[in-house]
Amino acid sequence: MTTLHDPLTVDAVEGYLATRWLGRPCHSFGTVSSTMDVARRLAGGGAPVGTMVVADAQTTGRGRQGRRWSSASGLGLWVSLIFPDDIASGVLAHVLACGVAEGIERCGAEGVAVKWPNDVLVAETNTLDAASKNQPTMWPDAVVRSARKIAGILVERTGSARYSVVGIGVNVWHGMTDFPQDLADTATSVALCTGNPISRARLLAEVLGVMERRIDAVRSGISLVDEWRRRSLVLGRLVCVERGDDRLIGRAAEIQPDGSLVVTVDGDSHVVGSGSVRFLGLTE
Fold first, then answer.
1. Which of 29, 62, 73, 176 could staple 55 via S-S, CB 3.0–4.6 A?
2. pLDDT in tens, 99-112
């Protein structure tokens, strides 16, 4: 897909940014090995909470569980941020995933949902009508035909350090031929979903604005669990939860306030704090 000139310089980002602390200061690079590594070094050197690292490309970008994250030049948002360490990882992952989902919606995408714990997908459903577009949809009640990944989030904490480093990857300008072969059937991008050009800097500012408001709310004691449940694409569905070599097959029944997933198997409830989810019976 042909892109317009779409820089991610500090000036371009700050031209849209309206946050108080999140994304400030901003460090912009052309190509790095991983924005996570740069952010971690900055945090170790005393960089303040809210510091952001953006790059046009990553050579060794990574996702959850050590998976490689394809981060081609000029096609996406490859971002890492330093967050305070006073929010539980499960809660932080959900807050950020919902923030990314809403930010993408604000730029014109529809049907954006969250797959536990922190993947952001675009779902095609038989029940998404004009009245529900761009609103958090009751996905458990929707008939979803398929879902493609548009964004992912990685939360890392380091020992006794009083911060978390969060990586966010959003596919923005990708056309179908821009994805690696192993992702071509499961990934999508903002451009593919909207059919319109979108400034990466504007999208980043939208995402950060939503995230900051949610982080501030959680730190003030407000629970956002109802939003997580509305955004969730897994609740009510048959899933396989994979944790290393262990697999749990059952129906996703609930998301708890700490972000853990409750899966029912033959009437018994199992609480899962981490892992990867595969849908059973849904094209993904």
1. 29
2. 999 999 999 999 99
